[in-house]
């Protein structure tokens, strides 16, 4: 009984510590871009406690393009205030209003793009599939409202800063242009075919190990690039933020809650998805100084890989986030099933990622020395053909269901 109370107190402390950073998400205004797209619904703050002390349910979830080498000055999240946000946006505005695709550069504004359909939601915006009228290029456009809330504007700046500076990384979704107006920010990104979260729901079966191996190479490279080149930690690693295209290329996206690292530590406890959160973020050794490092993202990667390899979320049958977080703290880490034919080095890689003691959990450089990573770094795996087969199966199943639907 006492341990349950202690856990509840710790989770309450976690909620209090992130409440200020996420206050804006409770009162975020709807977005209406007058492009025949639905308004963005108000998003619930992560880890919101209900009246019973529990946590709210987790809502689970081939054209050659030339990268646009936009840059802007470094952003220090801890010192940004209203005037600084406006100054940074003014810097970015001088470089925006351009779209680079197929080796050509176009001047664009919001009227240059037309809505085709909804793609989903990111950490701080609504993602719409849009067509550039002049070139015909199809884009994924993240649309964000510039509100008067400082924390929300920090998220927008962080997302912009990371994607604009990561144009030379093949494992991060590419920004082809951006539009900044006094009231809105649009990030125009290359369109990918799907995210891994949607893929496993369509597939309705586990992802083969060799496919996961190539995914691991891409995601670990992306995370290591962010850390080494820009001093950034993602903080929201999960299948819905891993994208796949028809060529079989996997890329990382959504950097709205990424954190600047100071002495390799993240000093704030921004919200992420509770289901993939590392134990040290839930119950830090020092609650008054909740610093953690990239090994928290390594844990999130491990949870994601188990989900992809088994087709099931490892902490299944939980009715709310409180139960998930309680199991993360109280149970042994998830492991791959022993009788599914997984290789020894895949078992070992998962065990490394999901080492509960973060002091013993490897960082990216160590993961890149693991035999599983090294094997798939050089292995020839036709991810594109596998994905094409998966989509064929999905379309066939959908067609059969339509024929049998009265």
Automatic annotation (TrEMBL):
Keywords: ATP-binding, Kinase, Nucleotide-binding, Phosphoprotein, Serine/threonine-protein kinase, Transferase, Tyrosine-protein kinase. Its EC number is 2.7.12.2. One of its GO terms (molecular function) is protein tyrosine kinase activity. InterPro entries: Dual_spec_MAPK_kinase, Kinase-like_dom_sf, Prot_kinase_dom, Ser/Thr_kinase_AS. It catalyses: L-threonyl-[protein] + ATP = O-phospho-L-threonyl-[protein] + ADP + H(+); L-tyrosyl-[protein] + ATP = O-phospho-L-tyrosyl-[protein] + ADP + H(+); L-seryl-[protein] + ATP = O-phospho-L-seryl-[protein] + ADP + H(+). Residues 20-30 have a biased composition (Basic and acidic residues). One of its GO terms (biological process) is JNK cascade. Pfam families: Pkinase. The keyword Protease does not apply. Residues 113-373 form the Protein kinase domain. Residues 18-66 are annotated as: Disordered. Belongs to the protein kinase superfamily. STE Ser/Thr protein kinase family. MAP kinase kinase subfamily. This is mitogen-activated protein kinase kinase. It comes from Strongylocentrotus purpuratus. The lineage of its organism: Eukaryota, Metazoa, Echinodermata, Eleutherozoa, Echinozoa.
